[in-house]
Amino acid sequence: MSHVRRLATLGLSAALLLSIQWTARADDDRDFRDPRAIKTVFVIAMENHNWTQPANQFSGGIQQIFQNPAAPYINSLVSGGNVASRQVAYAANYRSVLATASGNNPHIHPSEPNYIWAEAGTNFNIFNDADPFVPQGGVTINQVNNQDNQLHLVRLLTHAGRTWRSYQEDTDLTTVNGTLTNVVLPKNQWTVPLTSFSGNFSSGVNQFNGSTQFNYAAKHNPQVFFTDSNGGNDPTPANPQSHNYAPLQQLFVDLANNTVADYNWITPNQFNDQHTTLSAGFMGLTGDPAKIRQGDNFLSIVVPQIMASRAYRDHGAIIIWWDESEQDGVANDNPDDFTHTIGEIVISPLAHPNVNGVPFASPVLLSHSSDLRTMQKIFHVTRPLFLGDAVHANDLSSLFADGAIPSDDDDRDGDRDGDDHGH
């Protein structure tokens, strides 16, 4: 199937599937799980950088992450220079969704379509960064990016009795005299963060970068683009889905209390995810090195705290995920060919063992569709089918020890998952 035809059929397939009588259920109950299998997942979403690129690797407006001196923590994880490296593996062949060697393929950009793809295996023909309920025009009057009654990952998790939570930095904070402070609201006032916002705190500073700047972007929060997981266009605490969203500060409370969900999506603000440079720079750096260092610093604080938790130690996994490939600054550079890779780092007690004392670099072709396929397998929600392009993708099992990711044959009834849906 050509990439063009494949892209065109993904959204149609998602819609048609809802005409099928289906019951999302866990393929296996918890007691039947392989004792080697992953139980809890933490995805940390990072932004707008290649892992490797053909030019301007360490100079210019967009630099690569791998071996970049502006990312000392990240590179210590994958080089073997960090005590955590014993539990690290990473992808050496992770590409933009639908990428080909020639780059003559659909281009899934900007950020938002990639986050939606990670949740549903397709972008639903969205190619912008609009908030979910902001009218965009298009084929229908006042069309919005919110998706109504579509299959996607957390919908399957919910129906199967699995839990999920979206932790979003700079959300659910107190307003005093019309200005935002870096003080978390009481839990009964938390909302579903449907609208993007940015500015400066009137009091308090960011706990990671020390600045007063805040910047929440709904485009980096994939679960808010689906009615069944965003609760509809209701920005009040009465929204029935508000319990599935939390300010980032709550992550550390939940880790300490061992009350994290099965599937945890963590989005830093747009300074701490490497998207935007702080106005004053960071650690003496400006421009892209500052962006990279801001995110590297964030990870150096958050990752060890997750690793210290019971949820992580008991068959947990952290996935450091980047959203999309970028042009490297050379005229007419095509970020969606095979000369560009995207970062994907796995940290887990069940990661692929080190090779010759350093973390394993998987050569397997991977993409966001691979993450989605893997999440469906970890949580045994491969029925009624693998979502969207996940049906075509390799999973992330090459980054894990044997048994950590269930095999395609691992259903209780002995049937291969793929036999039920044509894979």
Which terms would index this structure?
9 helices; 8-stranded mixed beta sheet; single chain; 423 residues; alpha/beta; disordered C terminus; Alkaline Phosphatase, subunit A; globular; two-stranded antiparallel ribbon
The fold-level CATH name is Alkaline Phosphatase, subunit A
**Top CATH class:** Alpha Beta
Provide the CATH architecture.
3-Layer(aba) Sandwich
Radius of gyration: 20 Å
Total discrete domains = 1
Topology at a glance:
Blueprint: H1 3-17, E1 40-46, H2 72-79, E2 88-91, H3 111-120, H4 153-159, E3 164-168, E4 173-176, E5 179-184, E6 197-200, E7 213-216, H5 227-230, E8 245-247, H6 249-257, E9 263-267, H7 287-307, H8 310-313, E10 316-322, E11 344-347, E12 360-362, H9 368-378
Parallel strand pairs: 1-9, 1-10, 2-12, 3-8, 3-9
Antiparallel strand pairs: 2-11, 4-5, 6-7, 10-11
Helix pairs in contact: 3-9
Structure description:
- This protein has 423 residues and is α/β, with parallel strands linked by helices.
- 21% of the residues lie in helices and 13% in strands.
- The chain contains nine helices and twelve strands.
- The strands form three sheets. Strands 8-3-9-1-10-11-2-12 form an eight-stranded mixed β-sheet, with helices on both faces. A two-stranded antiparallel ribbon has the order 4-5.
- Strand 4 (173-176) and strand 5 (179-184) form a beta hairpin.
- The chain starts with a helix and ends in a 45-residue tail after the last helix.
- The model is unreliable at 28-32 and 411-423 (pLDDT under 50).
